Amino acid sequence: MLALAPAYQTHLDGETTDLATCWRITRWDGLVFGFTDHLVDLTVSGQLYQAALGYSATDVQTSADLAVDNLELQGWLDSPSITEVDLMAGRWDHADIEIFEVIYSSVSTGIRRLRRGRIGEVSMGRTVFQAELRGIAQAFSRVIGELTSPTCRADLGEPRCGVVLGPLTVTGTVTSVTSARLWADSARAEAAAYFSFGVVTWTSGANNGFKMEIKTHGASGVMTMALPMPYAIAVSDTYSLVPGCDKLLATCIAKFNNVINFQGEPHLPGMDAVLRGPA
To answer: 124 and 195: one domain?
Structure first.
């Protein structure tokens, strides 16, 4: 049973209540935002909760069978805190969210926690956005297990792989930009394809802190990324870069000398061999 402060419970037992709902959202970049459905801004435990005019939320759904709790939030793209550019850039993806009620006439009385989870799918129209909020039971809905695979199932640098990325990480500066996906650092002297399937992390510029996989690495340090960056890449932007791995056994041997940790089964017969009939 949810325990409430005595003064909070006394207020709930009264004939009328002064309740407001608050949302505390912590993005992956560490920034914290607060919103409330009250008519004016509220400050709770030192955090400002902005009056969320133009926002509407569905009821919180709860079940007894460990199904994932969900809630949808709709709002207008006119807030200085939630912008279309940031939504498109993924800054709000998987943000941690806490929903609680507070007595707006006496915020020091305490809070009543309603739900906690993460932001799931975010979709946008021309003037509005819609965000799906997923409860903490979402973590239990994932399928855990592995299948055999001819390629390595580990990501480069993770504990199962065993390759230490620190000595392999390089830094540099963009010297030319062709598009949101194509850029180059002419100072790169590594052989072409060395950074294919690697990951670039931007350390300055508009994309500071964002990461993206390198699709292909060409001669003269030309990099083509898997997807365009959310913000424009500019000459003199700095980055850090780790080499890529195509997860093939030959690459594990020749490029990383790490075959002992290869997490694949390249020599197992495939389905064609299993289903093949007698000759």
So the answer is: no
With 0.85 as the threshold, say if the pTM is over it.
no
- Whole-angstrom Cα distance, residue 109 to residue 106? 6
Question: How far is it, in rounded angstroms, from Cα 111 to Cα 22?
Answer: 10
Alpha helices in 49-152 (DSSP H): 84-89
Task: Check which CATH number belongs to the domain holding 256 and give it.
Answer: 2.40.30
> How many C-beta neighbours within 10 Å does residue 174 have?
21
Q: What is the DSSP string of 121-148?
A: EEEE-SSEEEEEEEEGGGGGGS------
pLDDT band at 60 (very low <50, low <70, confident <90, very high): low
Cβ(60)–Cβ(71) below 8 Å: yes
- Spell out the residues 6+ positions from residue 46 whose beta carbon is closer than 8 angstroms to its own: none
Residues 211 and 244 in one domain: yes
- Residue 248 is part of which domain span? 166-261
Neighbours of 131 (CB within 10 A): 24
36-59 CB burial, b ≥16 within 10 A, e <16:
bbbeeebebeeeebbebeebebee
Q: Look-up: residue for tokens 């956005």?
A: 129
Contact 242, 156 (CB under 8 A): yes
User: Under a CB-based contact definition with an 8 Å cutoff, are residues 154 and 261 in contact?
Assistant: yes
Residue among 21, 273, 4, 279 at smallest CA distance from 148: 273
Burial 5-32 (b: 16+ CB within 10 A, else e): eeebeebeeeeeeebbbbbbbebeeeee
Distance of CA 231 to the CA centre of its chain: 17
Q: Which of 89-93, 168-172, 248-252, 261-265 has the lowest mean pLDDT?
A: 89-93
Please give the structure tokens belonging to residue 237. 């932007």
Q: What one-letter code names the amino acid at 102?
A: V
177-189 tens-digit pLDDT: 999 899 999 999 9
